[in-house]
Design brief:
Elements lengths: L3 H11 L3 H15 L5 E2 L8 E2 L2 E2 L3 E3 L1 H26 L5 H4 L4 H9 L47 E7 L6 E7 L6 H18 L4 H4 L2 E2 L3 H8 L7 E5 L11 H10 L3 E5 L4 E4 L2 E4 L2 E3 L1 E4 L3 H4 L11 H8 L3 E2 L11 H6 L9 H10 L3 E3 L4 E3 L5 E3 H7 L4 E5 L9 E2 L5 H13 L4 E5 L6 E7 L2 E16 L2 E9 L11 E3 L1 E3 L1
Parallel strand pairs: 4-25, 8-9, 8-13, 13-14
Antiparallel strand pairs: 1-2, 3-21, 5-6, 5-22, 7-25, 10-11, 11-12, 15-20, 16-17, 18-19, 18-20, 21-22, 22-23, 23-24
Helix pairs in contact: 2-6
């Protein structure tokens, strides 16, 4: 269901003559390059203007309040996960499975994780022989508030949709590294207000919509508004798959008077107690790359990654160690009765309402969406049309399979793969998503489509920030043919 402001812009766009449409497309292409609002399909493809929504995507005030409450609760739980993982909390090491390379980094940096008392097992494999009287779930001291990392250790982006039935928020997944779209959304808003709305004779105030936080400024404030220190912004290089926004974020920092250097984390050098990148001393690092992609953590005394490890030990790497725990399986923790003692009654109600039933796949018995104990693989095999399969950790919509769109043979093959790769796949209850009519410019054409959408909700100590992606496909991602949309509240 479209917001009135969206419909007003759509009607204006539909009324454009062919000549006016071509003029708008030309002006957009001309504006996109200096703003670095660009993309490419692969390393060999040309760099072109990013597909961009031409009408604002408006989140209602009520939905904004609901989404903010949900994502705040998810954020607070993600800060606790490293402590729970280190304490070998029941089944968490299977739910948030770390590949050997990531596990080696966690082991090296485990001294940074707040300690918490070991919890007794009450997971899906076994129950404790005798549960403590003061804790019905068998998880004493599970909600100790001091067992979390500092808020600045983490910045997440929760991907949220709206259910077709009831128009209520639905949490799809949460991410904590490689959070793309901050520069692109900020520049998209500039194009929306300075070009598109102006050409249509409209304005944000006339549409009665409110701007959401500028995501470049949001990132700047999360990193401490570092005007008097130098920041390294690091990612996997060479960046070949699409178009990286990190060099231009570094440029934005420099324009604000800060020292900012772009590079790869292995290029951080430790010399005389200072960390350097390309010969420039740096005080902190923004890490847009997972430990898994860096390979195994080097042994003590090795020079490789010495600069990064030094900044991690000083708690000057953002995100910190909690950024490695952005598994889709986290949603199992939010929906499983075995984890409810970790949450307040209000958080339990939020998760029950807005988080679809999710389970990480390994051979076990667990609760199905109706609360009945079942053999997990057998249940998933028989319930194809009501479930989705996803990799536990991935980006770009890779590997997502909707049971309702797959035949039984495809579903069986995917399940066999999940059986071989325990803890690396999750299943989730399929919730039909609502769609909205959107206009977007792509490949020098204006498209009008009834689109699926995914609202990216950034959350940190700064509160929420937003961007959105829209697509004809129900796997919504710009890399898979979708478009970026500019989020407003109204």
């Amino acid at each position: 269901m479209n917001h009135p402001a969206e419909l007003q812009v759509l009607r204006k766009l539909l009324s454009l003559s062919n000549q006016d449409s071509r003029s708008l497309i030309h002006d957009f292409g001309k504006a996109a390059h200096p703003l670095h609002l660009l993309n490419r399909a692969s390393s060999r493809a040309p760099i072109v203007p990013m597909a961009l929504g031409l009408n604002p995507f408006v989140v209602s005030r009520e939905h904004s309040r609901q989404i903010q409450a949900l994502v705040r609760a998810v954020f607070r739980f993600q800060l606790k996960i490293p402590s729970l993982y280190q304490a070998n909390f029941p089944n968490l090491r299977r739910i948030c499975f770390l590949e050997p390379s990531s596990a080696s980094w966690f082991k090296r940096l485990s001294h940074l994780v707040p300690r918490r008392p070991p919890a007794q097992s009450c997971g899906d494999h076994e129950a404790p022989r005798q549960k403590p009287r003061d804790c019905p779930s068998g998880l004493p001291e599970a909600r100790r508030p001091d067992q979390v990392l500092p808020f600045r250790d983490l910045l997440i982006r929760a991907d949220v949709g709206l259910a077709a039935r009831g128009q209520i928020p639905v949490l799809y997944e949460t991410n904590a590294t490689a959070l793309g779209g901050m520069l692109f959304h900020a520049m998209g808003v500039k194009v929306m207000e300075d070009l598109i709305l102006k050409d249509l004779g409209l304005s944000r105030s006339g549409l009665r919509i409110r701007r959401t936080p500028d995501l470049l400024d949001y990132l700047w404030r999360w990193l401490g508004s570092p005007s008097d220190i130098s920041t390294a912004l690091v990612e996997d290089l060479p960046f070949n798959d699409s178009y990286s926004e990190i060099p231009w974020i570094a440029q934005y920092f420099r324009k604000k008077g800060a020292g900012a250097v772009h590079g790869h984390p292995r290029q951080l050098r430790l010399k005389g107690g200072r960390v350097y990148l390309h010969g420039r001393a740096v005080d902190q690092v923004f890490r847009d790359m997972t430990f898994k992609d860096m390979g195994r953590c080097p042994r003590f005394g090795r020079r490789k990654y010495a600069g990064l490890i030094e900044l991690l030990n000083r708690r000057k790497s953002f995100p910190g160690i909690s950024g490695e725990f952005d598994h889709k399986g986290i949603l199992e923790c939010l929906t499983s009765p075995h984890y409810q003692s970790l949450f307040s009654p209000r958080e339990v109600r939020l998760f029950k309402k807005y988080v679809p039933w999710t389970r990480v796949l390994w051979e076990r018995r667990t609760e199905n969406p109706e609360g009945k104990r079942v053999d997990l693989f057998e249940y998933v095999r028989k319930s194809k049309d009501s479930l989705i399969l996803k990799p536990n950790q991935s980006a770009g919509g890779e590997g997502v399979l909707f049971g309702v769109e797959a035949n039984q043979a495809q579903w069986e093959r995917a399940l066999e793969k999940a059986h071989r790769q325990e803890s690396r796949w999750v299943t989730q209850k399929y919730v039909e998503s609502s769609r909205r009519w959107m206009a977007y410019v792509k490949d020098e054409k204006i498209h009008f489509e009834n689109c699926y959408f995914s609202i990216g909700v950034f959350y940190s100590s700064q509160g929420p920030g937003y961007h959105c992606r829209v697509s004809r496909s129900n796997v919504v991602n710009v890399a898979r043919g979708g478009a970026l949309a500019c989020v407003y509240v109204g």
